[in-house]
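Bumping with the actual sequence this time:
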Amino acid sequence: MMWIDDDLSLNALIDQVVESDRYALDTEFHREKTYYPKLALLQIRVGDVTALVDPLAINTQLLGRLFAADSLCIIHAAQQDLEVLQHASGSVPQRIFDTQLSAGFIGMSTPSLASLVQSELKISLPKGDRLTDWLRRPLSTDQQRYAASDVDFLFALHDNILARLKELGRESWAAEACEELRTRPCGPQDPSEAWLRIKEVRTLKPASRGVAQAVAEWRERKAMQHDMPPRRVLSDIALLGIAHSAPQTVAELSSIRGLESRQIGGQVGQEIVDAVAHGRNVEVRIPHSEHDDLDKEFRPAMSLIAAWISELAREHHVDAALLGTRQDIMDHLRKSPKSRLSNGWRAEIVGRDIEKILTGEAGLSFDGRGRLRLLPTTLQ
């Protein structure tokens, strides 16, 4: 295990990765006190060497050369790591193999790294302290050892999972799913939709929704600007209180529950009042739930197809969430261009058969053991 805290050593490590077929990667990060995730440590394994890279001491833009390499990046549960890396370096690896995601194609359901290493390699990973401050320097020997263990066994997991994927003829399925994950948009969501992440907004009267939307958007942009959690800018309780009362002056604003005077000092109070004024003139609607605009005749089909997909997932030893979620089914029934069931391996297993069900070419029936089966129909 080596510690890297200068650009020269990092470039030397990247040179090794560029010359290798694969490398393992993991990150440690914090986001409790910031809006954007703060990269605290980068673990990289290439060959038989594990390196701990200190992002606080190196130029993180150099990671762009690492991620541009054609080498396959082996990573576990990559979604948050990709977001962190995108923010820290402006790029993500060109090719990934997510061991958690790929394990879903060989009969496992989103296993943790520790459980996967135990089941596949019969090795117990060291237990880390969930309260570890990864931004603190220096890291203790135990902390470094724990961090290194997150990448030390990824090559062996890759070998095991890949071999079984090939046996089952599902290597392309996993590759497609990993690329789908790698290219999925990550990072901040549209600030204008921030209000929808507040649970209680669905109880607001129509006249209050525009205010909630405008103030939540202001809060989100303020949080992004100052890199702090939105609720530290303005609590949800205060935001909802503002939406209910729609204050027109800073003086009226100061009486809102959950809002302290220090939070509305300077220009902030007037900015909130301006957002309220804007929101009062805007009519916004809460998006329909997943069933609201689904034609009534499709609702029985939705439930039946969802049950059938769960049955197929068990038969194929594939994680049901990978095969198709209720949102996937709905997108397919609506003929949405973003339907995942219309393309690739999902279309092969379920998408085309759903079309047969909808057109009457096939139907679903229970067998003698209570399992759903797809059967061809005889059209009169």
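The tokens above came from a reply further down the thread. Strands lie at 2-4, 22-30, 38-46, 49-53, 72-75, 96-98, 362-366, 372-376.
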